[in-house]
Design goal:
This protein is α/β, with parallel strands linked by helices. It is 43% helix and 22% strand. The protein contains eight helices and eleven strands.
Length: 233
């Protein structure tokens, strides 16, 4: 069963999310605060595919919940719900490990589409793991393991989120090739993604912090001004 954790303090919005995701075939566990969301995650032993978190949660805010859940699971898909005025919170959430965000207000179709898109990525990576998929792609000191979604640099393991893995896999499959933000967006988030391209830039920044010796002077993930990004060995 596809299980989603919903954390939303506004009752009407929470019920709206629960009803629509249940109709779409998801098993939904909901919580009205950040503290209860974390308790639910523990109660179910982390057996969730996705989490949809409102940023403005009582007791423990959504960004803290995001950080905590990401520290407990690199495979969990995380979507943040934000208001239009919470621009910096969107970026902070992505830097803390969220895979996507949805700006309020949103329609039932947008919610389900974004959850479905992220779930497909989660399921694909789970299938690779269960099938003992062991292929690796190696460029000098950097090795991408396609089974466990891990990156190794000089033998040190660097865990990746769902989106980070998709981007790195895309880079490694096209070394030295300039990939536009639109291409990266469609590859990692899907052709029907309705969000903004700047989410690509935030994830690139996050990847540089993990991969580069000096993120401010990147040697591998290179910006090609006006065009996009490319991977250099």
């Amino acid at each position: 069963m596809k299980r989603v954790l919903i954390a939303e303090d506004e009752t009407a919005i929470r019920e709206f999310e629960v009803i629509n995701l249940k109709r779409a075939g998801y098993d939904v566990v909901d919580a009205e605060s950040g503290k209860k969301a974390l308790e639910c995650f523990e109660r179910y032993n982390g057996d969730f595919d996705l989490a949809v978190l409102d940023i403005m949660l009582p007791e423990v805010d959504g960004l803290t919940v995001c950080k905590e859940l990401r520290s407990k699971s690199s495979t969990l898909g995380i979507i943040l719900l934000t208001a239009k005025t919470q621009e910096m919170d969107k970026i902070s959430g992505l830097m803390l490990g969220a895979d996507d965000y949805i700006t309020k207000p949103f329609s039932p179709s947008e919610l389900v589409a974004r959850v479905d898109a992220l779930y497909r990525r989660v399921a694909l990576n789970l299938m690779r793991t269960e099938n003992n998929f062991k292929e690796e792609i190696k460029f000098d000191e950097v090795v991408l393991n396609l089974r466990n979604r891990a990156l190794k640099k000089r033998g040190k393991i660097i865990e990746l989120t769902q989106v980070e893995f998709q981007i790195m896999e895309y880079f490694f499959s096209n070394p030295g090739t300039v990939l536009s933000r639109t291409q990266i967006l469609h590859h990692a988030w899907g052709d029907s993604y309705q969000g903004e391209e700047k989410i690509v830039d935030v994830n690139i920044r996050r990847l540089r912090m993990k991969v580069e010796d000096n993120p401010s002077v990147p040697q591998h993930i290179i910006t090609v001004w006006g065009l996009g990004y490319k991977w250099e060995n």
